[in-house]
Design brief:
Elements lengths: L1 H22 L5 H21 L5 H23 L6 H20 L2
Helix pairs in contact: 1-2, 1-3, 3-4
């Protein structure tokens, strides 16, 4: 259950990070509201999860999900370059996240 909440918190991190870009410096109302709501929900879920999982593991997974998700969204929606090096390092983050998950059984 805690891992599911952690994954959801990480997905919300992706939402608020992408909403920041869409808000254009918090000058657009709806993307700004999405950003704030998703960020608060993400932090609250992370706070709940760290009561049950090691804080270092939970934070690394939360941040990693956000980083990988935003990097992929950048390539798909914002046409960021997908280079061999970017792909390699994103893959390494994913490997680290999977490793942390199986370490904390």
């Amino acid at each position: 259950m805690w891992w599911g909440l952690l994954i959801f918190a990480g997905l919300l991190e992706i939402v608020w990070a992408l909403a920041i870009k869409q808000s254009e410096g918090f000058t657009k109302l709806w993307p700004s509201l999405v950003c704030v709501v998703a960020a608060v929900a993400s932090f609250v879920l992370l706070a709940v999860v760290v009561r049950h999982l090691p804080v270092g593991t939970a934070y690394a997974v939360w941040a990693g999900i956000g980083a990988v998700g935003v990097a992929i969204a950048g390539v798909v929606w914002f046409h960021d370059a997908l280079t061999l090096w970017r792909t390699t390092f994103i893959t390494l983050i994913v490997v680290g996240l999977v490793g942390l998950r199986f370490l904390e059984q």
